[in-house]
TrEMBL record:
GO annotation, biological process: non-motile cilium assembly
The keyword Transmembrane helix is assigned to this record: yes
Protein name (Swiss-Prot/TrEMBL): TMM80 protein
Transmembrane portions of the chain: 6-30, 42-61, 73-94, 106-129
Primary localization class, coarse: other
Annotated Pfam families: Transmemb_17
Lineage: Eukaryota, Metazoa, Chordata, Craniata, Vertebrata
Superkingdom per UniProt: Eukaryota
Localization of this protein: Cell projection, Cilium; Membrane
Keywords tagged on the record: Cell projection, Membrane, Transmembrane, Transmembrane helix
GO cellular component: ciliary transition zone; membrane
Source organism per UniProt: Mystacornis crossleyi
Membrane association type: Multi-pass membrane protein
InterPro entries: Uncharacterised_TM-17
Amino acid sequence: LSSLPLQILLYVNGVYYIFYFLATLAMIIYKSQVFSYPDDFLAPDLAVLFLMAFLEVPRLYLGFKGNLTEAEAPLGLSLGLTAGSVVLCVYLLLWQTYVLRADVLLNAVLLSAYGLESALKVTAIAAFVS
């Protein structure tokens, strides 16, 4: 009953998130050097990015584990962590100090992946329960 599309998407999302983290970190460094980035706002933007990375590891692990073992609880926890990651992603998309077009593109792809992944998780949980 485990979902192959979900498993593939979890893997692709893990690889993409590494790229996303490094690109966003590089852009924050770039913005702090090129623009007059207020020191009071640099720390929260970096904290959100690192908190997001901290949430991503258990989110992906629980997603992989829940899907492969056909267990609802880990998939449900992963779905909850996905909601937290979506909130942090929206922060980086809308409320970051400076938002470049590259930020919009990276966050739009990540939010799309989160949405598709969430739909597949809900479908997998429904299949495991029935």
